[in-house]
Amino acid sequence: VCPTGYTLDSNRQCVAREEIMPERVCLNGGELMSDFNCMKTTNPIMKCPVEYTLVGENMCQKNVEIDPVAVCPSGFTLTDGQMCSGSKTVAPIKKCMQGVLNEMQNECILQKSVSPISTCPSPDFTLVSNERCVREVLY
């Protein structure tokens, strides 16, 4: 005869059955939340629009080349032949209305900057506050 809570098995031994809750573990580095769901966060991938390059961690930049404008010194006027005419003829001084003149003084360089676009590495993740990617895994 077995004690209370025990039963006699086929080997004539008294055996009690014990049940315990399984340990919940998140796979792939996820974090177990209070509602027993797993959440994994990753940093967004910073990408710039086409023709822009990422400068530092949070700025996209594009170089735009435009032709310089011929400007004559004070007292001279620009002729149709793109020369400055006055008491004597001299080559025009090139200045850029926007940007800066390059070293060869034949192009103006204008830098434009825009912020990068945050995207998550896969469609399974949702971008939260433009700062982190979150994926909810249900078990």
Summarize the structure.
By secondary structure, the protein is mostly beta strands. 0% of the residues lie in helices and 40% in strands.
Could you explain how this protein is built, in words?
- This protein has 139 residues and is mostly beta strands.
- The chain is built from no helices and 16 strands.
- A four-stranded antiparallel β-sheet has the order 3-4-16-15, with no helix packed on it.
- The two termini are 43 Å apart.
- InterPro entries: Growth_fac_rcpt_cys_sf.
- It comes from Cryptosporidium parvum.
Structural class determined from secondary elements: mainly beta
What amount of the residues lies in strands? Answer: 35-45%
Radius of gyration: 37 Å
Distance between the termini: 43 Å
Strand order of the largest sheet: 3-4-16-15
The residue ranges in which pLDDT falls below 50 over 5 or more consecutive positions are: none
* Structural shape: rod-shaped
- The SSE order reads EEEEEEEEEEEEEEEE
Q: Helix count?
A: 0
What oligomeric state is this? single chain
List the helices and strands and how they pair.
Elements lengths: L6 E2 L5 E2 L15 E2 L5 E5 L2 E3 L5 E3 L3 E8 L2 E3 L5 E2 L5 E2 L7 E3 L4 E2 L6 E7 L2 E3 L6 E3 L3 E6 L2
Antiparallel strand pairs: 1-2, 3-4, 4-16, 5-14, 6-7, 7-13, 8-11, 9-10, 12-13, 15-16
Task: Note the main attributes of this structure.
Growth_fac_rcpt_cys_sf; 4-stranded antiparallel sheet; Cgd6_200-like protein; mainly beta; 139 residues
